[in-house]
Design the sequence.
Protein backbone atom coordinates (compact mmCIF):
# COMPACT_ATOMS: atom_id res chain seq x y z
CA UNK A 1 0.00 0.00 0.00
CA UNK A 2 1.30 3.45 -0.96
CA UNK A 3 -0.24 6.76 0.07
CA UNK A 4 0.58 10.07 -1.61
CA UNK A 5 -1.17 13.24 -0.43
CA UNK A 6 1.11 15.79 -2.05
CA UNK A 7 -0.22 18.25 -4.58
CA UNK A 8 -3.79 18.70 -5.76
CA UNK A 9 -4.67 15.00 -5.68
CA UNK A 10 -4.41 12.37 -2.98
CA UNK A 11 -3.62 8.83 -4.09
CA UNK A 12 -3.60 5.34 -2.66
CA UNK A 13 -2.40 2.04 -4.13
CA UNK A 14 -4.00 -1.19 -2.92
CA UNK A 15 -3.80 -4.83 -3.94
CA UNK A 16 -7.00 -6.87 -4.02
CA UNK A 17 -6.62 -10.65 -3.99
CA UNK A 18 -10.18 -11.43 -5.09
CA UNK A 19 -13.41 -9.99 -6.51
CA UNK A 20 -14.92 -10.17 -3.00
CA UNK A 21 -12.06 -8.08 -1.63
CA UNK A 22 -12.46 -5.58 -4.49
CA UNK A 23 -16.20 -5.27 -3.74
CA UNK A 24 -15.44 -4.74 -0.03
CA UNK A 25 -12.95 -1.95 -0.79
CA UNK A 26 -15.47 -0.25 -3.09
CA UNK A 27 -18.23 -0.61 -0.49
CA UNK A 28 -16.02 1.09 2.12
CA UNK A 29 -15.40 4.13 -0.01
CA UNK A 30 -19.06 4.31 -1.05
CA UNK A 31 -19.86 4.84 2.63
CA UNK A 32 -18.56 8.42 2.30
CA UNK A 33 -20.26 9.22 -1.01
CA UNK A 34 -22.12 12.49 -1.24
CA UNK A 35 -24.59 13.82 -3.77
CA UNK A 36 -22.83 15.10 -6.87
CA UNK A 37 -19.77 12.84 -6.58
CA UNK A 38 -18.28 11.29 -9.71
CA UNK A 39 -16.23 8.08 -9.64
CA UNK A 40 -14.36 7.14 -12.83
CA UNK A 41 -13.36 3.51 -13.36
CA UNK A 42 -10.34 2.96 -15.63
CA UNK A 43 -9.05 -0.39 -16.85
CA UNK A 44 -8.96 -2.84 -19.70
CA UNK A 45 -11.78 -5.24 -20.56
CA UNK A 46 -12.12 -7.74 -17.73
CA UNK A 47 -10.11 -5.69 -15.24
CA UNK A 48 -12.97 -5.54 -12.74
CA UNK A 49 -14.66 -2.18 -13.31
CA UNK A 50 -18.15 -3.65 -12.90
CA UNK A 51 -16.99 -5.50 -9.77
CA UNK A 52 -16.05 -2.10 -8.31
CA UNK A 53 -19.42 -0.67 -9.38
CA UNK A 54 -21.23 -3.58 -7.67
CA UNK A 55 -19.27 -3.04 -4.46
CA UNK A 56 -19.90 0.69 -4.60
CA UNK A 57 -23.62 0.04 -5.04
CA UNK A 58 -23.62 -2.34 -2.07
CA UNK A 59 -21.95 0.38 0.00
CA UNK A 60 -24.79 2.73 -0.97
CA UNK A 61 -27.37 0.14 0.06
CA UNK A 62 -28.47 -0.73 -3.49
CA UNK A 63 -30.49 -3.95 -3.35
CA UNK A 64 -30.97 -4.45 -7.09
CA UNK A 65 -28.50 -6.46 -9.13
CA UNK A 66 -25.95 -4.16 -10.69
CA UNK A 67 -24.79 -5.39 -14.06
CA UNK A 68 -22.60 -3.97 -16.77
CA UNK A 69 -24.68 -1.38 -18.63
CA UNK A 70 -22.72 -1.85 -21.87
CA UNK A 71 -25.83 -2.33 -23.98
CA UNK A 72 -28.17 0.09 -22.19
CA UNK A 73 -25.34 2.58 -21.45
CA UNK A 74 -26.73 3.60 -18.02
CA UNK A 75 -28.29 1.82 -15.08
CA UNK A 76 -30.03 3.81 -12.35
CA UNK A 77 -30.33 2.32 -8.87
CA UNK A 78 -31.96 3.42 -5.61
CA UNK A 79 -29.85 3.44 -2.45
CA UNK A 80 -28.84 5.88 0.28
CA UNK A 81 -28.11 8.09 -2.73
CA UNK A 82 -29.21 7.36 -6.30
CA UNK A 83 -26.49 5.52 -8.22
CA UNK A 84 -26.06 6.27 -11.92
CA UNK A 85 -23.81 3.58 -13.42
CA UNK A 86 -22.66 4.65 -16.88
CA UNK A 87 -20.69 2.54 -19.36
CA UNK A 88 -19.25 4.54 -22.25
CA UNK A 89 -17.45 1.62 -23.92
CA UNK A 90 -19.64 1.68 -27.03
CA UNK A 91 -19.31 5.44 -27.52
CA UNK A 92 -16.55 7.20 -29.38
CA UNK A 93 -16.92 10.83 -28.27
CA UNK A 94 -18.13 12.94 -25.38
CA UNK A 95 -20.75 14.46 -27.67
CA UNK A 96 -22.45 11.07 -27.97
CA UNK A 97 -22.71 10.85 -24.17
CA UNK A 98 -24.11 14.35 -23.80
CA UNK A 99 -26.40 14.19 -26.85
CA UNK A 100 -27.71 10.81 -25.68
CA UNK A 101 -28.70 12.23 -22.28
CA UNK A 102 -26.27 10.07 -20.31
CA UNK A 103 -25.11 13.08 -18.34
CA UNK A 104 -27.81 15.38 -17.01
CA UNK A 105 -28.87 17.51 -14.05
CA UNK A 106 -30.69 14.73 -12.15
CA UNK A 107 -27.35 13.10 -11.42
CA UNK A 108 -26.44 15.94 -9.06
CA UNK A 109 -28.74 14.28 -6.49
CA UNK A 110 -26.75 11.04 -6.59
CA UNK A 111 -23.39 9.49 -7.39
CA UNK A 112 -22.22 8.85 -10.94
CA UNK A 113 -19.94 5.87 -11.57
CA UNK A 114 -18.46 5.94 -15.08
CA UNK A 115 -16.80 3.01 -16.82
CA UNK A 116 -14.56 3.97 -19.76
CA UNK A 117 -14.38 7.69 -18.81
CA UNK A 118 -11.66 8.18 -21.44
CA UNK A 119 -14.53 8.44 -23.95
CA UNK A 120 -15.31 11.85 -22.41
CA UNK A 121 -11.93 13.24 -23.42
CA UNK A 122 -11.43 16.72 -21.97
CA UNK A 123 -14.97 16.61 -20.54
CA UNK A 124 -14.03 14.23 -17.71
CA UNK A 125 -15.10 16.09 -14.55
CA UNK A 126 -12.26 17.87 -12.79
CA UNK A 127 -13.63 17.02 -9.32
CA UNK A 128 -13.76 13.22 -9.20
CA UNK A 129 -12.30 10.01 -7.85
CA UNK A 130 -10.36 7.82 -10.28
CA UNK A 131 -10.08 4.09 -9.70
CA UNK A 132 -7.48 2.58 -12.03
CA UNK A 133 -7.55 -1.20 -12.11
CA UNK A 134 -4.76 -3.41 -13.40
CA UNK A 135 -4.65 -7.18 -13.57
CA UNK A 136 -6.68 -9.86 -15.23
CA UNK A 137 -7.90 -13.43 -15.15
CA UNK A 138 -7.21 -14.87 -11.69
CA UNK A 139 -4.39 -12.45 -10.85
CA UNK A 140 -4.65 -10.02 -7.92
CA UNK A 141 -5.86 -6.58 -8.94
CA UNK A 142 -3.81 -3.45 -8.44
CA UNK A 143 -6.16 -0.60 -7.47
CA UNK A 144 -4.89 2.93 -7.77
CA UNK A 145 -7.30 5.42 -6.18
CA UNK A 146 -6.80 9.09 -6.91
CA UNK A 147 -8.97 11.81 -5.42
CA UNK A 148 -9.10 14.97 -7.51
CA UNK A 149 -10.25 17.85 -5.34
CA UNK A 150 -9.86 18.29 -1.60
CA UNK A 151 -13.40 17.17 -0.79
CA UNK A 152 -12.84 13.82 -2.52
CA UNK A 153 -9.92 12.88 -0.26
CA UNK A 154 -12.47 11.31 2.06
CA UNK A 155 -12.55 8.38 -0.39
CA UNK A 156 -8.88 7.64 0.33
CA UNK A 157 -9.59 7.58 4.07
CA UNK A 158 -12.59 5.31 3.55
CA UNK A 159 -10.65 2.87 1.35
CA UNK A 160 -8.18 2.56 4.22
CA UNK A 161 -11.02 1.59 6.55
CA UNK A 162 -12.17 4.94 7.94
CA UNK A 163 -15.59 6.44 7.30
CA UNK A 164 -14.98 10.15 7.86
CA UNK A 165 -17.26 12.35 5.75
CA UNK A 166 -16.36 15.73 4.41
CA UNK A 167 -13.12 17.53 3.63
CA UNK A 168 -10.65 14.63 3.62
CA UNK A 169 -7.18 14.07 4.97
Sequence:
Amino acid sequence: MTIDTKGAAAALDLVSASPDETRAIAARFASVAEAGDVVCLWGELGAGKTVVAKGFGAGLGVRDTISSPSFVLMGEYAGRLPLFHIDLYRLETAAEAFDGGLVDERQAAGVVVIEWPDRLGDDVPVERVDVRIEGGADDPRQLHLEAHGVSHRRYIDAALGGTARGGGT
